[in-house]
Amino acid sequence: MDPDRRRKIQELFEAALKREPDARGAFLTAACGEDEELRREAASLLARHEAPDPALPGDPTVTQLAPGVQIGAYRIESKLGAGGMGQVYRATDTRLGRPVAIKISYEQFSGRFAREARAIAQLKAQWELRVRPASSPST
Fold it and tell me: Which CATH architecture best describes the domain 57-132?
């Protein structure tokens, strides 16, 4: 997506947030005119913004990995953070004895995460990221 289009979507999203929730859909329809894709993109941002945060503590649908849990050759050390797409953990590659980051994506983003992994695998640079497959956690 080109930067101007991304900026336009962000502007629409921010303008919609300034309106009452029940007026946001009508605002987007009017502001986007016949550009249905633009309306859908901005509405998608609104829907994600208004949805309950899946990373809130105590949410039974979110897998929490405790220190010591083993995922393949990787041992979880601590949670680094969580965001809209998943959680990131500091871990140790027990084969090589080095620190790694493990990203666990929420189910609805698994397709996007797989595409990211394929894109990253194509990179060739000194700051190269390596994506390794992982299995289900075992205790």
Answer: 2-Layer Sandwich (3.30)
Q: What b/e readout covers 111-127, taking b as 16+ CB neighbours within 10 angstroms?
A: eebeebeeeeeeeeeee
CB 112 within 8 A of CB 85: yes
> How far apart are alpha carbons 82 and 86 in whole angstroms?
6
Query: For residues 20 and 17, what is the distance between their CA atoms, to the nearest angstrom?
Result: 7
pLDDT for 77: 92
* Domains of the chain, residue spans: 3-50, 57-132
Q: Residues 85-104: what's their mean pLDDT?
A: 88
Confidence tier at 91 by pLDDT (50, 70, 90): very high
E-assigned strands of 61-114? 70-71, 74-82, 86-93, 98-105
pTM for the predicted model, two decimal places:
0.44
C-alpha distance across the termini of the chain, in Å:
42
